[in-house]
Amino acid sequence: MKDDTKEKKTKEPASVGHKILTVVGIVLCIILIPVLIVNVTLLIKGFVNKDEVPGFLGYSPLIVLTDSMEPTIKSGDLIVVKAIDANDVKEGDVISFFDPKSSGSAVVTHRVLIKRTEGDGLPVFFNIENAPGIVEEDGKRVFYTQGDGNNTPDGVPVPAEKFVGVWTGTRLAGVGRFALWMQSTTGLIVCIAVPIILLVAYDIIRRRMYDKSQKKDTDDLLKELEELKKAQSAGAGAAQQAQQASPGNVQPGNAKPENTQPANTAPVNSMPENVPGAGAPGADAPQTDNAPTAD
Prior knowledge:
Number of domains: 2
Strand content: 5-15%
Mean pLDDT: 74
Shape: rod-shaped
Largest sheet: 6 strands, antiparallel
Strand order of the largest sheet: 1-2-9-3-4-7
Structural class: alpha+beta
CATH topology of the largest domain: Umud Fragment, subunit A
Radius of gyration: 55 Å
CATH architecture of the largest domain: Ribbon
Low-confidence stretches: 265-295
CATH superfamily of the largest domain: Umud Fragment, subunit A
Helix content: 25-40%
Number of helices: 3
Number of strands: 9
């Protein structure tokens, strides 16, 4: 009973430790694997299609570098835009687009102008000219935009072919700075190497704990078998001793049965007949050589 209790106490900490490592491993997988998948996808798309904003399942993360959209969006934030058809864009939407003033791949995120109405909550300087934000020019859709933090609209309209996507409203404050670091050489090494190292380390620790548990179980089983053999051996010895001590199988050593005499012996104090020099009490003394002889 004591051995069972001790064994249970020994196994409980090992079981708790195994559960903790399992939970940690699951959490790491849930967090790190999607991050790796998204990062690798964005990197591949960025290298393959340099003229497009890399995205994943129609969504593209963008890092805000300026304060032109404050207070709605701040510098250093990470926002998510969704690729939709340019015809579905409405006035007042915050959209991302390739800067029409440059021939590079710089992306700008501003709001499409919307005509002012009382109580719309927009800054007093927003769309000061109260101009429409979406117009058709030469049969093509064009967007007029302005940053929430700017005093005037953008000087160049945005053609539909420069449109990237519409802001989903998702904003992760300050995460953009971390994302910029992740795009550096050091960040790429850390973000790719560390998850792999953690997963490998978790697998090694899990395997060692499993092997240790298996070895302990094997040792315990061998110990139980050894104790069982000893118990069986002791039982067999006790049975043999009991059998030897049984009355029907006892052989006396030098003892002789009581009141028994060998067949060729005489009783004590008895003399055989006609034995010279030996007579019964009161019998005549035997003759000697000096006795007279008869002629």
